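ingest -> validate -> predict -> emit
validate: passed (alphabet ok, no gaps, 142 aa)
predict: started
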Amino acid sequence: MGFEIELSDEQWREKLARSRYEVLRTAATEPAFSGSLLHVEEDGSFTCGGCGQALFTSGAKFDSGSGWPSFDKAIEGTVVERADTSHFMRRTEIICSRCGGHLGHLFNDGPTDTGMRYCVNSLAVDFERAPGTEPAATTERS
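emit:
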């Protein structure tokens, strides 16, 4: 499968932090409830951590209780679906259409009218706040 951005494995290793490389390039999964973007509720978009392509809007994000950021739809044309039979399971892997980076998996158990749950690793994406919006207030947790 040809992608707009194709780098060698060595180039990806140089470009990405090790943990991000493991998720995006080797289809690793970050531990549930560990991702920095799980609770982001600000207005903006979630972009591919490998190439910067916008993949999901904050309006499509919902709390699935799964421990990973979840979305009910992707921005049209930005996510490719392919069969994943690893770990003795049948799942649908989702990858970035621009660079082929592994994002997570797609399930048909979502609670919205789309019925879809794009289950995404925080390490696979970045968040870009919508222009003109202020960062959400943070509170200390003890």
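The helical segments are 9-15, 18-26.
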